[in-house]
Amino acid sequence: MQDLFSGLVQEVAPQVIAFRRELHAHPELSFQEHETARRIRDRLGQIANLQVLPPYIETDVVAVLNADMPGPCILLRADIDALPIQEETGVAYASTRQGVMHACGHDGHAATLLGTAMVLSRVADQLPGKVKFVFQPAEEDGGGGGVLCERGVLDEPKVDAAVALHAWPYEPVGSIAIRPGWVMAASNPFKVSIQGVGSHGAYPHRGIDSIVVAAHIITALQTIVSRTIDPQDAAVVTIGQIHAGTAENIIPARAEMEGTMRYTRLELGEQLRQRLSRIIEHTAQAHGATARVEIIDGYPPMYNDDDLSALITTTGRELLGEANVVTAVPVSMGVEDFAYYAQKVPAAMFRLGVRPVASDSYPSLHNPAFNFNDDALPIGIRMFCEIATRFLRAGGRGTK
Ligand SMILES: [Zn+2]
Ligand SMILES: [Zn+2]
Predict the structure, then answer these.
(1) Most exposed residue of 66, 193, 282, 325, measured as fewest CB within 10 angstroms of its CB?
(2) 356 alpha carbon to ligand 2 midpoint, in Å?
């Protein structure tokens, strides 16, 4: 099977590369992926043994291989949305849309999954189960993964496990990175509104300065992570926006702030939320002001299932070589909406190296110069094909 895959992957690679570049040239923002979804749907429609499902949201595309075959079902997921960034790669197939680009490699994820569907369809009769291909909108903004899970993407056929990959510019092409356990953070964005009393800048004693209150709140918030969270746990509290005031000689009555909390264990969330609210409300009160806090539910933390992580690690070592599977992976305080799938079924996500082997560095994700590396496409496809096949052949279990 291994040799069979490498031959088939080579065969589809030129089409997959062309498709990746086509998507790259026509990026679309979260929940606006109409043209992207149409392009994917058109291609999937040409693949044998594949049943393309009606959309769950408008811009998703989900297809099932071997829909009528008994046996387990593995879900493979690619996100398909782009970012509000003006591209600076200088490539011939650069974005044709002003201010929108594929700067997170989702064009590469979608092309990898299409290639995987093309290859697996050719060996469909050798697979003892089903493969569900999910081209998911709105990873960057809006949590499309959460919406799909709510609307039943894990049912009919019922999904036994879910696997995804993400382009990783910090490792070279030909390598992957994976580890079990908590790998990405949960987020709680929050908004703060401070109400003081406005006054002339020369008469501070006649007002309550919302800017000074905001400053004290920001300083006090620094104690949440440094003084109340176990140093063995990972958490972040960041204020990313502050707005107040209209002139140099006016003490403003109101100040508004926005920020985000990140943490890797679900249980930390409640502790952080309580602490944040208490510090903000009471610090404002101590200065004679009032403050309102609104905490928003963000993405949950991403947990890589032990057995699936072991399956991916073993597969990577056999395909790419022992040295090309990085397992010393630090927890990322970034977020990922694949975590919604992981809340419902065993799931794992691995990172796919895209840095050219000869280079020491590569532009970061979300950088205007980032571009998915086409050399990584065949590697991603082979990994997906092998993982799915091994999972189904093991009767729907990860193999340690
Ligand atoms: Zn991103
Ligand atoms: Zn991404």
Answers:
(1) 282
(2) 19
